[in-house]
Here is the input.
Amino acid sequence: MKILALIGSPRKEGNTDILVEEILKGSEKKGHKNEKLYLYEYDIAPCIDCRACKKADYVCPLYDGMQEIYPKMEEADLIIFGTPLYWYGPTGKMKLLIDRMRPFVANRKLEGKKFVLVTPSEEGADACRPIVDMFNMSFDYLKMRFIGTLLAKAYEKGEIKENQEAMKKAYEFGLSF
Ligand SMILES: Cc1cc2nc3c(=O)[nH]c(=O)nc-3n(C[C@H](O)[C@H](O)[C@H](O)COP(=O)(O)O)c2cc1C
Here is the structure.
């Protein structure tokens, strides 16, 4: 299986990155092929609701980093969305990517693909209800298959490493793919 991990935190080696890396270690052990992208390294413009993606070839006419990311999403069997909780939602960068997923409504290229959500936060799992609902409802609309979340409590950069339980859960999550 091809796994694409999208890191929506601005902090490399931050809590999101560490958790996703641990998941990927587990999935690699199972022989899956992984690729990880840091969204903050990509220029992603906001969707402007031009509706071009609803016509003809069902592609987005905005020419930016998404043109590199779209084919990777299309080729993946499972997509890991990693984002810290920012105001009970994803980071702005992750939201930009989600808004730009609109071509997939018409071209249906993500239908049947699996996805997971990985979200560290200061407050922990209870505070993640809105983001879990958002991902569930949005990607259900794209007919993607939600296979689980990894929600963990952490605040300072790298603090998640001290949470042995979350690290173990992450590795085992990857093994379960
Ligand atoms: C702008 C901003 C908003 C945040 N909002 C929340 C929040 O609503 N609830 C929460 O529990 N943590 C919130 N946090 C804390 C982060 O989710 C937390 O520090 C997380 O571990 C960061 O992950 P990272 O290391 O992968 O960037 C916020 C942090 C920032 C910078």
Q: What stands out?
A: The domain at 2-175 is CATH 3.40.50.360 (Rossmann fold). The mean pLDDT is 98.
